[in-house]
Design brief:
This protein is mainly alpha-helical. The chain has helices at residues 2-14, 22-29, 33-41, 59-73, 78-84, 92-122, 132-135; strands at 20-21, 48-49, 55-57. Helix content is 62%, strand content 5%. Bound molecules: zinc ion. The site of zinc ion has 6 residues, from helix 7.
């Protein structure tokens, strides 16, 4: 067991500075290791391999993983992110334009929902159904 650990450390130290294995990379980005393997399968971030076949993530890979997380936070799917990562990827601008449109629609819906609830809070009707404004909310 001790011998195995020593071997792993040795393999790691022979790799370039800052490079980490999949477990450490996953921890740093805040996802499970299987998520990074999935991202690799999808071609989003493909790590290098040691001669023994272990995944190694360089600083550049780690930076890309953080970018992927940022893209996920704005609601992009993995297949969209794969396009967005590369400026020259075909269809990239369309993906971004469509998602911007999607976000703007969501914002309009959230603004309407906020205005509706803000009104309901101060509505003077005893029943919402008796209020013209309460009844005017889309979907009501
Ligand atoms: Zn009202």
């Amino acid at each position: 067991m001790r011998r195995t650990l020593g071997l792993q450390v040795d393999l790691k130290s022979r790799w370039h500075d800052g490079a980490v294995r999949v477990g450490a990379a996953a921890e740093r980005v805040g996802v499970a290791a299987h998520v990074l393997r999935h991202w690799e399968d999808e071609g989003v971030v493909v790590p290098d391999r040691t001669p023994a076949g272990h995944r190694v993530y360089s600083d550049e890979h780690l930076h890309r993983l953080e970018i992927v997380r940022s893209c996920q936070r704005v609601g992009l799917s993995l297949s969209q992110i794969r396009l967005v990562l590369h400026r020259d990827a075909q269809g990239r601008d369309d993906v971004i334009a469509q998602h911007l449109e999607h976000l703007r629609r969501q914002r309009a819906e959230l603004d309407a929902a906020e205005a509706f609830l803000t009104h309901v809070l101060t509505c003077e009707h005893d029943l919402m159904s008796r209020c013209e404004r309460c009844s005017a909310y889309p979907g009501a």
